[in-house]
Amino acid sequence: MSPIFIDREDAGRQLGAAMPLRYRERDDVMVLGLPRGGVPVAWQVAAALQTPLDVLTVRKLGLPGNPEFAMGAIAPGGITILDERVIGGMGVSRQAIDTVRDAEQKELDRRQQRYRGDRPPLAMAGKIVVLVDDGLATGSTMQAAVAAARQACAAAVVVAVPMASVEARDALAAQADDIIVLATPQRFQAVGQWYAKFPQTSDEEVDRLLAGHP
User: Fold this and answer.
1) Is this prediction's pTM over 0.90?
2) Which helix (H) or strand (E) segment is 94 a member of?
3) What pLDDT score was predicted for residue 214?
């Protein structure tokens, strides 16, 4: 299985070029990257659409003992998405779920403070919100982001990602108003396998991108 993208910047450029014309150069469109890995991709999408870039902080709830595998996700506003199929199949107790959720809530709060600082809360009401990540494996974090945008009264929610598993794409297609996915590779195991270079995105890089510097 060969990589599809060189890195997140390359994926973002390709995704930006594929965005429909109806979202370009509009005052009511906002692009939100999902930190941290989605932000470099979102920067390129925002540049292509000529719209501002911001972040919507969400956190994956990883399985106890296997934190890379999502059993759900959380987002601001008290939103929790749980994959009951995974939870039931792996026999995860409610106590274990609560423990993971409490830990991830602390990290979500830290990132909210880090990335937003003194800036006002996101104002998504009446906006076409384009949610961008570097890929969707289970889709749990993006589902939480969509729920947060809905709760914030977004006029429409658009999901835009370089690649996704077929299952995640289909789940998000049923929840978003529009979805743009460049590739749905078979035998999808992890997002990173489809990138030649997939380093961790740092807080410092997120800060720099939000400040407008590629």
Assistant:
1) yes
2) helix 94-116
3) 47
> What are the tens digits of pLDDT across the range 76-106?
999 999 999 999 999 999 999 999 999 999 9
User: What's the start-to-end Cα distance of the chain, in Å?
Assistant: 30
Distance CA 18, CA 12 (A): 10
Yes or no: say if 181 and 173 are a contact pair by the CB < 8 Å rule: no
Pairing of strands 128-132, 79-82: unpaired
Per DSSP, what are the bridge partners of residue 70? 62
- 15, 41 Cβ separation under 8 angstroms: yes
> Do 82 and 161 touch, CB atoms closer than 8 A?
no
Provide the phi-psi class of 91: left if phi over 0, else alpha when psi is between -120 and 50, else beta. Answer: left
Give me the sheet containing 53-55, strands edge to edge: 53-55, 29-33, 128-132, 156-163, 178-183
Q: Which domains does the chain have, with CATH numbers?
A: 1-214 (3.40.50.2020)
Angle value at C-alpha 57, between 13 and 159, nearest 5 degrees: 45
DSSP letter (8 states) at residue 196: S
